[in-house]
Amino acid sequence: MAAQLLDGRAVSSAMLAELRAEVVDFGRVHGRRPVLATVLVGEDPASHTYVRMKVNRCGRVGIQSRRFDLDVGIDTKELCRVIGDLSADPEVDGILLQHPVPGHIDERAAFEAIDPDKDVDGVTRTSFAAMAFTEEGFASATPGGILALLDAYDVPLAGRHAVVIGRSAILGKPMGMLLLGRDATVTYCHSRTTNLREHIERADIVVAAVGVPGLVKGEWVKPGAVVVDAGYADNRGDVDFDTAVERASFITPVPGGVGPMTIATLLAQTVRGAQRRAAASVAPLQPLSSR
């Protein structure tokens, strides 16, 4: 029997509908809309497409977007200054630096210039620590979206063996931390892993996040396993879908699985950031003086 599709488009649409109502309520109470600032360096066509999609989704739910497209020649210091100014701007609730930046820029330094309270994409060390220690904070948007998608289909995580293929700072590593926080047993695999097939064959949950089309062969998937394909290169995923779909219990399509959930999570965290900042700005009531 073919696997059930983990439909990110449907789940994200439901999330966005709920967010739209939250944004309306936020505006009614605070007299403004949540604000997401997007920062894009250079002319990479894929990056421009991703930012345009995020800006369009902002419009759908009523979030105000501010787009900053910067010249490819900008250096790390100037990029950090731009991000620092947005971090200090009281009217900005969330900041997204579109990944990847050009090679001459220190991407980690640029990420760390984001105020953690506005790190709605979950890329700073502070956000990673919050994920690792299961504390309140912003999740990395793609891993957070994957977790929300699994929850929407009531996929059990506790006690299950999850294999995460990939160890990037904004996808693979935080994905493992989030799964560990939900009591899964997590194995990380990467470019230096030997016998990748053997690890996958033992996995109850496979999260492929390396951007290598067709890396995971369908026959490697254990019957009944859950397969999440977070890879996206040349309009193909990391998993050989046509064979994996016949063995898995649940599987994400590419496109239409993880991608929509990433954007929905980013916007949800922007609204949450706005709500937190608004609550923090309200001065506590002073007790009445005794007469």
Automatic annotation (TrEMBL):
It holds the Pfam family THF_DHG_CYH_C. Residues 6-121 form the Tetrahydrofolate dehydrogenase/cyclohydrolase catalytic domain. It comes from the Bacteria. Gene3D superfamilies: Leucine Dehydrogenase, chain A, domain 1 (3.40.50.10860), NAD(P)-binding Rossmann-like Domain (3.40.50.720). Pathway: One-carbon metabolism; tetrahydrofolate interconversion. Its EC number is 1.5.1.5, 3.5.4.9. InterPro entries: Aminoacid_DH-like_N_sf (IPR046346), NAD(P)-bd_dom_sf (IPR036291), THF_DH/CycHdrlase (IPR000672), THF_DH/CycHdrlase_cat_dom (IPR020630), THF_DH/CycHdrlase_CS (IPR020867), THF_DH/CycHdrlase_NAD-bd_dom (IPR020631). Residues 140-277 form the Tetrahydrofolate dehydrogenase/cyclohydrolase NAD(P)-binding domain. It catalyses: (6R)-5,10-methylene-5,6,7,8-tetrahydrofolate + NADP(+) = (6R)-5,10-methenyltetrahydrofolate + NADPH; (6R)-5,10-methenyltetrahydrofolate + H2O = (6R)-10-formyltetrahydrofolate + H(+). NADP(+) binds at residues 166-168. Keywords: Amino-acid biosynthesis, Histidine biosynthesis, Hydrolase, Methionine biosynthesis, Multifunctional enzyme, NADP, One-carbon metabolism, Oxidoreductase, Purine biosynthesis. The keyword ATP-binding does not apply. Catalyzes the oxidation of 5,10-methylenetetrahydrofolate to 5,10-methenyltetrahydrofolate and then the hydrolysis of 5,10-methenyltetrahydrofolate to 10-formyltetrahydrofolate. Belongs to the tetrahydrofolate dehydrogenase/cyclohydrolase family. Homodimer. This is Bifunctional protein FolD. It comes from Streptomyces bottropensis. The lineage of its organism: Bacteria, Bacillati, Actinomycetota, Actinomycetes, Kitasatosporales.
